[in-house]
Structures are given as structure tokens and as C-alpha cells.
Amino acid sequence: MRKIALIVAGGRGLRMGAEVPKQFIALAGKPVLMWTTERFTKFDSEVELVLVLPADQFEVWKALCQEYNFKLPVRLVEGGATRFQSVKNGLDSISGEGIVFIHDGVRPLVSKATLENCFNSAMEQGNALPVFSVVESLRKVTTSGSQHIDRNQFRLVQTPQTFVVSGIQKAYQQPESDFFTDDASVYEAAGNTICLVDGNQENIKITTPVDLKIAEMFLKTEC
């Protein structure tokens, strides 16, 4: 089955406090986004790579590819004003059927096992949402204070959220809503049931300088 990695990288890195968007920050010798992209080609060398970026970052990406001799064939798509619009633009650029992995550009540590779990579930059930268990205690904030809640009833959500192309394209024909926090919420709102699969705990989203240090540690350990 055809595989497409739709990598969304529209962040500006405000919480990172850096001069460049976080997807372009150097991590263990090359930009974060390059590590992320390579995860998919290591999983399947024939995967199609679609990278959604703000239009004003196209030339930045091309310059970085030359600087780091990065030669993977990546098709660029212009992002929108919101993540919903960016993903929709990426999906609209895909013709034909297949399995699409919709992934955050700043998650460079997704494992091969997670990608296999997502692909197999999408093939069998039409979709896959990688998650892992909550290990910290949780409390719910209420008007009167807070209360303990059972962490076993909750899961932390990751990407790539993975779908049969036609199914997620159809779901993204809905009007955008503040309720849509990720692709699974869009797909579910279209009347579909979400299938959970095991993710990997180190598949963190790089948002702060601390995340960058953690990711570097994991990458050095892999090497």
C-alpha cells in the first residue's frame, strides 16, 4: 500500500525563545525537521514526503537542504493560518488512495515500532492514533478547588495520526472548529471511531529548550 508522510511544520518557536522557527533549530548536528523526515524513510524508503510550511519558509528550507546536503525528495505545500488549514492544504495536494501519516515536524523521535503500529491499524481499521499511558498523578481543577482523577482512564496523544487518505480527506471537508485540536478530533467529528495504538514515550514534541536537550540525549543514545 502506498504510504505518504504529511509533515506539518508551521511553528514560529515563540516558546523556544529562539531566533529561528523551532523546526529549523539545530539538533545533534542538523535541523530538527531533517531528523523528523528521515524517520519515515528509515521506516520505508519509498514513502512519499509532503512538507507543509509557511510560504516564507520555503527558501529557508531549501537553503538548509543545500547547507546540510539533505537530498530526500520532499514536496513542499504552503500552510494556512491555522493547523487545520495547513493539514487540509496538505491533504488536498494528495491525489489517489493510500495511507497518510500526519505528523508534527518537531517530533523527531517517533520509533519504527510506532510507525508500524499506525500503518497496520490504518490498513485494518482505517485509522490509528498513537498514545501512551499517563504515569503522573492527575488532578481536575474545579470551581471549588481540585479533585483527584483516575489516570488509568486517560492517554497522552502523539502523532503521526494515520488514516486512509480518502477517509481523512472527507473529514477535512467539515468547517473548521475550535473543538478540533488534532486530526483525530476532526475524523471523529465526521462520525468515525478512533483506533488507539501504542506510541513510544520518547516521541516528544519539541516546544521548549528543555525538550531540545531531552531529544539530543535520546539521539546521542541511539547513535
Task: Outline the structure in words.
It is a single chain. This protein is of the alpha/beta class and 223 residues long. 33% of the residues lie in helices and 24% in strands. It has helices at 32-43, 58-67, 83-92, 112-125, 165-171, 183-189, 209-222, and strands spanning 3-8, 26-27, 30-31, 48-53, 74-78, 99-104, 127-133, 138-142, 145-149, 155-157, 161-164, 196-198. The strands form three sheets. Strands 1, 4, 5, 6, 7, 10, 11 and 12 form an eight-stranded mixed β-sheet that branches. The protein has a two-stranded antiparallel ribbon with strand order 2-3. Strands 8-9 form a two-stranded antiparallel ribbon. β8 and β9 form a beta hairpin. It is globular. 37% of the residues are buried.
Low-confidence spans: pLDDT under 50, at least 5 residues? none
Radius of gyration: 18 Å
The total of beta strands comes to 12
Sheet with the most strands, sense and barrel status: 8 strands, mixed
Return the string of H and E elements. EEEHEHEHEHEEEEEHHEH
Average pLDDT value?
95
Ends distance: 31 Å
Structural class: alpha/beta
> Treating each run of at least 4 consecutive H or I residues as one helix, how many helices?
7
The rough form would be described as globular
Estimated share of beta-strand residues: 15-25%
List the helices and strands and how they pair.
Elements: E1 3-8, E2 26-27, E3 30-31, H1 32-43, E4 48-53, H2 58-67, E5 74-78, H3 83-92, E6 99-104, H4 112-125, E7 127-133, E8 138-142, E9 145-149, E10 155-157, E11 161-164, H5 165-171, H6 183-189, E12 196-198, H7 209-222
Parallel strand pairs: 1-4, 1-6, 4-5, 7-12
Antiparallel strand pairs: 2-3, 6-11, 7-10, 7-11, 8-9
